[in-house]
Amino acid sequence: MRARLLLGAVAAAVLVVALLAADGRGEGFPLDPEGTGPQGLAALVDVLGELGAQVTVAETPPAAADTALLVADRLDDDARADLEAWVAQGGRLIIADPESPLAPERDATVGLGTPRLTRDCDVAALAGAEAVAPGTGAATYAAPGCFPAADGGGVWLALDQRGAGTVVALGDPQPLTNAHLADADHAELAAALLAPTDEAAVAVLAPPAPGEDEVDLISLVDPRVWWALAQLGLVAVLILAWRGPRDAELVAERPAVALPASELVLATADLREQHGGRGESAASLRRAAREHATARLGLAPDLDAPTLAEQCHRRAGIAGDRAYRALTAEPADDAGLVVLGTDVAALRAALDAPGPSAAAPAQEDLR
Fold it and tell me: DSSP assignment of 313-349, as one string?
């Protein structure tokens, strides 16, 4: 009976999400519990509700919650300590962010490319979930658990007892997203972990929306971009003062050399003229942003945009929504093309700044 209800709930949730996404409403940001886009979690929340779970979207788990889902760890040290205390008192925490400090130790093998992993453990609660399909870049853990990697390099789902509670760590969040909840046995796995009983109290710990603390689009611009533009403006003033009006006959002069920090800003206007179309110009900018980001971060060239934007945010400090726009934006007019050029410039400035982003990720960076 519960299996039929689960199948019906998944079908209904996917249908609702598809209808909402089709008319462009409420797509949200990646891993948004209310997001109906491919990387959102709206279908998961709907399925849990259909199974009778009492779902709460919050920053911290309420005292009455039995289970909490942490899809992206943006917590500070105090909030993380409170969450650990909640687990120790008997809570069950499902972590879908392998880089969270709350997750168990990761195995040396990272970057699963296996289409499916088969459950190989005797955990009775997971008996209905025989296989999962991890996303590219998923992690494995050096801990007891289920769904071992084919090469023996750890497990995709780790189980860790913490005091009176349990931490269940997943190698990546993809199986919980709208686009993949109906794949393999992902829905069965989600139900077993988050709503094992009727009327289970589940807290979905939502990551902050990218830029939610910002006032407007102007304040979202990286300070380093403004600094580069200020330098460019100062140079322009100096050039005008030096090459100002003269009494002598005008002669042709070689143009001043463009500053490296201004290359993408100037290229935005040049591309429009060269390609003769806004779509081609935007595609060229997005392609340049992707190639530069994957090269600087040492990632696969075909990494999906939400994951790449997340990595840019984590390791280069650029706002996640801004990195995502630089990789995916489709400008509706020339003003939008200029905004895209500014976003790409900000992404490159963040990646080129001294710091961890300039090299391939070390093992410690992935913990």
Answer: HHHH---HHHHHHHHH---SSHHHHHHHHHHHHHHHH
Q: Which residue has the tokens 């993380």?
A: 80
The reported pLDDT for the residue numbered 363 is: 37
166 beta partners: 92, 161
Distances in Å between the Cα of 240 and the Cα atoms of 190, 234, 245, 269, 300 are: 64, 10, 9, 21, 45
More confident residue, 238 or 355: 238
CA-wise closest residue to 329 among 287, 270, 271? 287
Contacts (Cβ under 8 Å, ≥6 apart) of 33: 40, 41, 42, 44, 45, 57, 204, 206
- Measured CA to CA in angstroms, residue 126 lies from 72, 130, 194, 211, 332 at distances of 23, 8, 11, 37, 47
Phi, psi for 219 (deg, rounded to 5): -70, -10
Instruction: Give the pLDDT confidence score for residue 253 in this predicted structure.
Output: 57
Half-sphere exposure of 231 (CA within 13 A, CB side): 11
- Per DSSP, the three-state class of 86 is helix
CA distance 142 to 158: 8
CA atoms within 13 A on the CB side of 103: 30
- Contact partners, residue 240, CB within 8 Å, separation at least 6: none
User: Nearest Cα to 303, choosing from 18, 117, 113?
Assistant: 113
Taking CB atoms within 8 Å and a gap of at least 24, the contacts of 115-119 are 116/184, 117/147, 117/148, 117/149, 117/150, 117/156, 118/147, 119/146, 119/147
Q: Which CATH fold would you assign to the domain 2-205?
A: Rossmann fold (3.40.50)
Residue closest to 286 by CA, chosen among 232, 325, 256, 315: 325
Count of all residues that appear for the chain in the document = 367
Of 241, 360, 220, the closest CA to residue 300 belongs to 360
pLDDT tens string 168-186: 999 999 999 999 999 989 9
Whether 172 contacts 135, CB under 8 Å: yes
Structural domain spans, the chain: 2-205, 217-366
Min mean pLDDT across 48-52, 118-122, 222-226, 267-271 is at 267-271
